[in-house]
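Figure 3 (text version): structure tokens given as input.
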């Protein structure tokens, strides 16, 4: 029996979405776990693709749908997202006519439509279509069916994109539970979902919760790679990256050291696979662990210089490593010298790498990215929400604000002449946090003809979420303009 209100809502969503969002978005700008396009029916041969295919007007409705799906998939692969959006909506209409609104095929078609809407950053539309896809599966099957996992992953990703990590936490928890019911509590397939859950928990501000999720991921990976230590390396590198983002820098260092020990034991102490964990371990010493998560690791090494130097020695001793990895490894050491104000050492390496990257067209392109503009060496995460905005459950709509920063990078890699503005201007606390973060950043200075140069007119924009109620409270307090509080007008930092 068809659930009429639900079906009507689905059709309203499709109609409303069809009239909105014509902007083009570069798909490379959007990272998501949404590589999950599913066929809306048995694919077989792609209709109309082989020689001698019948004319379009002789194709059946189902054959036309298969042909449209092949077109949709091609458009997704080509990054033609606006056209893919139109194609996905056409497929939804076809599946409803052929299979009915309450069918697996319609659920899959809605899932595919939501995927392209997510890629186009039409998050609210994507959320509604993922939810409808989920409701159809629940009606046809049950609330623990394994087919719910893909649309739940998409729903959680779209909730994150819409600035609702609190909702995403619940969604990813449910997806994880469904994999436990169907695949067992130790299935390795849940790791991708748990990584999304860790991201959501981190964005909510629950560092302990994020760390607990990371520990679950680690236990699963250790169990899965019990007899293959080298196979564990990618998961260790991801674990260290997550620990860094959560601020557990001592734990991060312990994880990189474990990865290094595995490579040394299995491949030798000069193997090029040591270069990346050594570089990452060196970079971790730019940060101070305020969580005191691993006291036994504190105070053992003061800086990362020894790790940068070892990485350089291994890179210089292996002729087979790619030239980009060699250049990045050498530049890491130069960046460290900029950080500790050893400018003569830094200048010497930068000049050497300028010459190294000037050899051919391919290296010149890399030189532009690596040396002909300021590159941030040290930065820290900025808050994505006004205090408390991520946790609120009310229907108060999330709005987006922006902090704009104009600054200069000196030839010593420090920020000068920093000016900030908030939009809306009432969010002076967020403005102060962003101002403080940019002021403390250290950059690899720009080079011109191999010489370090000061670089002005740098612009950084930080977007954040807030609720209208947050803005109303600030307006009621009638705070003075940011400049009067000394937030930053023409403030110079050396």
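Below: residues designed for each position.
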């Amino acid at each position: 029996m068809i659930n009429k209100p639900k079906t009507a809502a689905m059709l309203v969503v499709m109609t409303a979405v069809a009239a909105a969002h014509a902007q083009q978005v570069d798909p490379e700008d959007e990272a998501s776990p949404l590589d999950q396009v599913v066929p809306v029916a048995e694919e077989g041969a792609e209709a109309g693709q082989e020689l001698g295919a019948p004319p379009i007007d002789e194709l059946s409705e189902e054959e036309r749908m298969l042909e449209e799906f092949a077109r949709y998939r091609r458009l997704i692969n080509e990054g033609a997202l606006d056209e893919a959006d139109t194609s996905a909506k056409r497929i939804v209409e076809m599946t409803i006519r052929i299979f009915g609104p309450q069918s697996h095929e319609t659920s899959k078609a809605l899932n595919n439509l939501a995927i392209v809407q997510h890629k186009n950053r039409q998050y609210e539309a994507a959320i509604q279509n993922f939810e409808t896809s989920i409701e159809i599966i629940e009606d046809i099957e049950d609330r623990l069916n394994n087919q719910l996992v893909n649309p739940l992953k998409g729903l959680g990703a779209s909730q994150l994109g819409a600035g609702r990590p609190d909702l995403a936490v619940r969604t990813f928890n449910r997806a994880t539970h469904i994999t436990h019911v169907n695949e067992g509590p130790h299935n390795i397939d849940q790791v991708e979902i748990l990584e999304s859950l860790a991201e959501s928990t981190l964005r909510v501000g629950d560092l302990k919760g994020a760390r607990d999720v990371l520990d679950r991921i680690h236990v699963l990976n250790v169990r899965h790679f019990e007899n293959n230590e080298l196979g564990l390396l990618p998961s260790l590198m991801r674990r260290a990256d997550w620990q860094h983002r959560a601020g557990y820098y001592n734990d991060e260092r312990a994880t990189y050291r474990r990865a290094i020990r595995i490579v040394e034991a299995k491949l030798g102490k000069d193997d090029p696979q040591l270069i990346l964990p050594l570089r990452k371990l060196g970079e971790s010493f730019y940060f101070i662990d305020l969580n005191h998560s691993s006291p036994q690791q504190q105070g053992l090494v003061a800086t990362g210089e020894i790790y940068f130097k070892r990485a350089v020695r291994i890179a210089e001793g292996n002729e087979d490593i790619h030239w980009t990895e060699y250049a990045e490894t050498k530049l890491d050491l130069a960046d460290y010298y900029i950080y500790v104000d050893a400018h003569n050492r830094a200048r010497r390496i930068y000049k050497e790498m300028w010459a190294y990257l000037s050899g051919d067209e391919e290296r010149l392109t890399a030189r532009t990215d690596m040396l002909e503009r300021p590159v941030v060496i040290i930065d820290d995460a900025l808050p994505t929400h006004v205090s408390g905005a991520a946790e609120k459950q009310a229907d108060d709509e999330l709005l987006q604000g922006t902090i704009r920063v104009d600054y200069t990078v000196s030839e010593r890699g420090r920020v000068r002449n920093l000016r900030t503005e908030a939009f809306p201007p009432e969010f002076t606390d967020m403005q102060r946090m962003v101002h403080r973060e940019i002021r403390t950043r250290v950059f690899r200075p720009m080079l011109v003809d191999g010489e370090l140069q000061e670089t002005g007119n740098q612009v950084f924009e930080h977007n954040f979420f807030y609720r209208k109620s947050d803005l109303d409270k600030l307006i009621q307090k009638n705070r003075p303009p940011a400049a009067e509080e000394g937030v930053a007008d023409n403030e110079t930092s050396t």
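The chain has 18 helices and seven strands.
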